[in-house]
Amino acid sequence: MRKKQKRSKNSIFPLPIDQLLETIQSKFEGNDDLKISKHEHNGKKLVLFYIEYQADSDMLQNYLLRPILHIKKDWTNDELINHIPLTSPNKETELEKILEGLIVGHVFIYVEGESEAVSYSIVKKETRSLEKAETESLVLGPKISFTESLKTNLNIIRWRIKSTDLVVEELKVGKTVPAGVRLVYMKSIANEVDVNTMRQRIEDLDIDEVEDSIVLKQYLEDSQNNLFPQFDSTELPDRFTYGLTKGKIGVLMENSPTGIVAPATLFSYLESTEDLYMRWQAGSFLRILRFMSMFFSVLVTPAYVAVVTYQYGIIPTQLLISLGQSRAAVPFPPLIEALILEFLIELLREAGARLPTKVGQTMGIVGGIVIGQAAVEAGLTSNILIIVIAMSALASFTTPSYLLGTTIRLIRFPMIVLAGIFGLYGIIFGICFLIIHLLNLKSLGRPYLVPLYPLQLKDFNKVFFRTPFNHLNKRARSYRPKDLIRFSKQEAEKRKDIDE
Amino acid sequence: MDISPKIRNNLKVRPLYILFMIFGLQVGVGIMGAPRFIFMESMQDSWISILIAWAAMVIVIYVMFQILKQYPNADIFGIQVDLFGKWVGSILGTIYILFFLASLLSVLLTYVNVIQLFLYPTFPPIIIGSSVLLLAHYCVIGGVRSVVGAAFLFSVLPLWLLFLLYDPITRMDWYHFLPVFQSSIPELLKGAKSTTYTLTGFEILFVFYPFLTKKNKVLKPALFGVTATTILLLIFMIISIGYFSPDELKKDDWATLTLFKSVSYPFIERLDYIVVVGWMMVILPNLVILLWASSYGLKRLYRIKQKSSLHVTFVVLIVLVGFIKENHIIYKITDYVSQVSFWLIFVYPLILLPIVLIKKKWLSKKKKGSDAK
Amino acid sequence: MNYRMILVFILSSLFLTSCLSSQEIERLGVINTRGIDITDQGEIELSLVIFQFEAQSQNFTKVVSGKGSTIKGAVVNAGLETNFILAPGKIQLDLFGKETAEKGILPYLDTAKRDANIPDTMLLAVSNTPAKDMINIQEQNISMNIGQFLHDLIQENGTGQKFPNVSLQDFITTFYDDGQDPLLPIIDLQDNKPFIAGIGVFKEDKLVGELPNGDLLYINLMEGNIKDRWLEISLSMEPFKEFLKNEPKDEEELHLAFNIIKGDSKSKLKEKKSLKYETEVMMDVNLFEISAEIPLDNEEVRKKLEEEVNKKIQSDYERIFSTLQELNADPFDYGVLYRIKKKDGKLTTEEWSEIYPDIKVDFKIKTNIIRHGITN
């Protein structure tokens, strides 16, 4: 896709070798890792320069230096290219390009008197091997996750989608620290408007550096003032390609094990590829369970606070008695009680995430059981609240997307405060506020609550629950794919008689 | 000003949503007390009154549609200016806007009143008022698509409350309906008229029409919208008649809410609390649509920036809600709104249609005349 | 204006002015039962069973009482006896002393309807003793708090006989309905233990008489569908003597216990002029117990048995109805049937009071024995 190198006006060649080396060395002043080796043959001078650890030294020895030194004729660029057993030589003329190339592990060869320097990419990059996904773990389905290597990631995706439809566009972000970004989508499915929007947004970014794709995601999102993530991010290649085949657009970035998928809706965060691997009944059940647990997690603690503080009438008499007895010993108002306990749970969670896995588990047990038990006995909280909060914490873990999970954790606190001040009224206020907030949200310019609003009734069986694959012959309209039809329905639905 | 405002295509919505705009705006605080007012007039035959009101609405909507059809993409503000000239048209348009604002105020006050009555007698009205208005304001800031979305979601979400009516339904006494057809025709008509306050809201068709795609398909969803409201009102009316004894219903200001008072389940009791606070979702479409319609109207008539008029209305309404406390003033405001809405919503379109038709005919004749020359 | 500015402004004002009076349950005395009596001076005397939760004690019920000329006033007065805020949101039972009930209970229900806080599901009952005595009985006898006990007693007592329509809402509706009168349970003390002593018959809101508690089933049958209830009946042995398998003993009565699978009733106004009513009661029953052995597989015997049961129930109904006519109270809604046949559909209480003693009701009972258990 790159344009062919044209002879540029600001070419620095031809140039005497000593002068060239001086220029380059001045740019790398203070760095000792620029390696230079000069050679002479038949009166022709040649220089080879590279950065020590970026280039593979074995390859350098065997495939570059040795063939060059074995050339009998005069050294020219063409002669070199003919003799070196490596593909894709580049010819550079600009100093800027040479410097850029050096950094990413190119080896440059300049024969004195030539108007171009020849470069070979013999990058040596340290990567970790493929591993099991940690943050988004699946019970069924592929286990590997993306790694920090962009090439590996693209390799995984190409293997998953073996189609010429898959387009990988190369883009760059960052001025002082440039980083490669790839825009990935299915040519025949993805909506062009969305692709253009995304490309435009990446190209328009005017920043010095981007730390990671999750940071890039925040730059690209429609609004940064919102609570909710607007682009999906995942470390699972199957979730990534699942998005692509539905007509979404993926973004990958160098050195980041996270892929971005857009546009997203609130409900797409609750979809897991696992739903597809399950039988449809179980898949639907789990998806509905996740929806309910999201509401449950947000609402249950505030409901406790509101009811205990204001609307005691809602509690049935028997429950009221046990609630009242457990509350009687607690010296704080319910609001403070709930906030303390929620804070405790968040502490445990955060500590568990930071600590090494083995210690983390112990922490969970110590925190959950010992502290909880002690808090009740010391009369700091009521035991019913412990149950309530533990349930809400549990429910918040069911979201397949970690980012949405964090949002849900965060929303709880204002909701609890509202419930503590206004009771049930506060909760309803909070819910209405969230709904309107979600209505105002956009992801890549698309409504965030689709298919609920704008209403797409035909998408309900793809988003809120799952029907057998035979029925799912169309892609979800909500993402506006170019091509709606997945397969012809007639064949799948052909009625068969008994014993046929 | 332009008679037909130019609306960007990405702001337009499917005709389906006029259903929810109408339904969302009609169902509000009115329905909380409606059974009593209707029952006072036409007793156990109140359901007939509601059917009469439905027929009237269908006619008026048809007439409104005929008026709008004469123009490519116009709203009431443009049509009035076109018919009566700039001055008179603007004044009539202003009346519409004032009516929207007055309905908004009466909805707000009534809701505040109910919250205080059922849940928090000491809750300062200004806080209830401002918190609800804040939500509406936040929604209108999001633009017309958010407004439609709110009308849609908030009119669908509270429908689950209907399931709670299972309990009152089992306690109904069908003898309360007998003997039928006892009320005289004037009584029935009076009963129908007393639904006015509850059923206002379909006038939004006049304002929202330019925002709809596929104009030829608008009539059906609009009719479905009023029909849905009628069915809802009918459900509440019938259950109320069966559930309460006549003398009791005549005394109960908030019959619809009282219906929920005896609903209780083993794990949750006093569902009327939840219904009363949950009613916020029912009135939000009211507030959102009215707030949007009035600020949009001001923009159309006087070219005031929608944002600034929105902020000003917001502040003025909060102040008013803070000051008006007495029950009887609230009832009076509601009463005025209902009086005005009868003339403005039900009668005015019937007058407007012949004028529009005559003018169109005259224009086409003139055109023909000029063509002939 | 910046939107966030408004938000911050309003939120802060919300916090500043948040002067809602909170009702944290540990600070409340949640009223569970009210006993209402009238003192000789004409004041209202309230006895309240309240729940209050204290860290130090396991016993959470307490009885407080207060006097006043209004109910609310009496509650405030009673509040002086406790350090908890008395909260009316969960009242389960209003218990009226018999004397109070005879004078009419409507004035005391006004606040219950007016105050949105008081639940409509609250039950009403009459106490044969002054309500105060009933509320104050010792808890040892009943092993749970008195309010809860009475509530459960009325709602579903041991025999599975539910009292029809005794919640506040039901009472009010029946009261306001023309041509209907309410019934309420009467509770009495026996060996310091409360039990349901009878069925209080009300004329409007005044207690005018009483039916024995054994008639509860018949009343339930008149109210509508019933299922899975027990019917105990004693018939004269005479008609069955010839069928007895064993030697006839000198027992005079045949005792039977049925389980009613399905029971329903229907009343009609047959002739409006002569005020002739017809009430049909239909029951599908299972026989569960019989005191003498008779061959039930015999068609003739079964017919006979059904016939005798019908006769017995009919006579019971006639007895109940004549009592009601004497009291001039109409809990079986015959007035409603009259009203809906009238031209304008209106019937005042006075009018009906004059007509009611003259109406004639023809009770038709249809019992259908479906099974007679495993044995014959």
Automatic annotation (TrEMBL), chain A:
<dbReference type="Pfam" id="PF03323">
    <property type="entry name" value="GerA"/>
</dbReference>
<dbReference type="GO" id="GO:0009847">
    <property type="term" value="P:spore germination"/>
</dbReference>
<keyword id="KW-0812">Transmembrane</keyword>
<dbReference type="GO" id="GO:0005886">
    <property type="term" value="C:plasma membrane"/>
</dbReference>
<dbReference type="InterPro" id="IPR050768">
    <property type="entry name" value="UPF0353/GerABKA_families"/>
</dbReference>
<dbReference type="InterPro" id="IPR004995">
    <property type="entry name" value="Spore_Ger"/>
</dbReference>
<protein>
    <submittedName>
        <fullName>GerA spore germination protein</fullName>
    </submittedName>
</protein>
<keyword id="KW-0472">Membrane</keyword>
<feature type="transmembrane region" description="Helical">
    <location>
        <begin position="416"/>
        <end position="439"/>
    </location>
</feature>
<keyword id="KW-1133">Transmembrane helix</keyword>
<feature type="transmembrane region" description="Helical">
    <location>
        <begin position="382"/>
        <end position="404"/>
    </location>
</feature>
<feature type="transmembrane region" description="Helical">
    <location>
        <begin position="288"/>
        <end position="308"/>
    </location>
</feature>
<comment type="similarity">
    <text>Belongs to the GerABKA family.</text>
</comment>
UniProtKB/TrEMBL annotation, chain B:
<feature type="transmembrane region" description="Helical">
    <location>
        <begin position="273"/>
        <end position="296"/>
    </location>
</feature>
<feature type="transmembrane region" description="Helical">
    <location>
        <begin position="147"/>
        <end position="166"/>
    </location>
</feature>
<feature type="transmembrane region" description="Helical">
    <location>
        <begin position="336"/>
        <end position="358"/>
    </location>
</feature>
<protein>
    <submittedName>
        <fullName>Spore germination protein (Amino acid permease)</fullName>
    </submittedName>
</protein>
<dbReference type="Pfam" id="PF03845">
    <property type="entry name" value="Spore_permease"/>
</dbReference>
<dbReference type="GO" id="GO:0009847">
    <property type="term" value="P:spore germination"/>
</dbReference>
<keyword id="KW-0309">Germination</keyword>
<feature type="transmembrane region" description="Helical">
    <location>
        <begin position="88"/>
        <end position="112"/>
    </location>
</feature>
<feature type="transmembrane region" description="Helical">
    <location>
        <begin position="224"/>
        <end position="244"/>
    </location>
</feature>
<keyword id="KW-0472">Membrane</keyword>
<comment type="similarity">
    <text>Belongs to the amino acid-polyamine-organocation (APC) superfamily. Spore germination protein (SGP) (TC 2.A.3.9) family.</text>
</comment>
<feature type="transmembrane region" description="Helical">
    <location>
        <begin position="118"/>
        <end position="140"/>
    </location>
</feature>
<keyword id="KW-0812">Transmembrane</keyword>
<dbReference type="InterPro" id="IPR004761">
    <property type="entry name" value="Spore_GerAB"/>
</dbReference>
<keyword id="KW-1133">Transmembrane helix</keyword>
Automatic annotation (TrEMBL), chain C:
<dbReference type="InterPro" id="IPR008844">
    <property type="entry name" value="Spore_GerAC-like"/>
</dbReference>
<keyword id="KW-0309">Germination</keyword>
<feature type="domain" description="Spore germination GerAC-like C-terminal">
    <location>
        <begin position="198"/>
        <end position="373"/>
    </location>
</feature>
<dbReference type="InterPro" id="IPR046953">
    <property type="entry name" value="Spore_GerAC-like_C"/>
</dbReference>
<keyword id="KW-0564">Palmitate</keyword>
<feature type="domain" description="Spore germination protein N-terminal">
    <location>
        <begin position="22"/>
        <end position="188"/>
    </location>
</feature>
<dbReference type="InterPro" id="IPR057336">
    <property type="entry name" value="GerAC_N"/>
</dbReference>
<keyword id="KW-0732">Signal</keyword>
<dbReference type="GO" id="GO:0009847">
    <property type="term" value="P:spore germination"/>
</dbReference>
<keyword id="KW-0472">Membrane</keyword>
<keyword id="KW-0449">Lipoprotein</keyword>
<dbReference type="InterPro" id="IPR038501">
    <property type="entry name" value="Spore_GerAC_C_sf"/>
</dbReference>
<dbReference type="Pfam" id="PF25198">
    <property type="entry name" value="Spore_GerAC_N"/>
</dbReference>
<comment type="similarity">
    <text>Belongs to the GerABKC lipoprotein family.</text>
</comment>
<dbReference type="Pfam" id="PF05504">
    <property type="entry name" value="Spore_GerAC"/>
</dbReference>
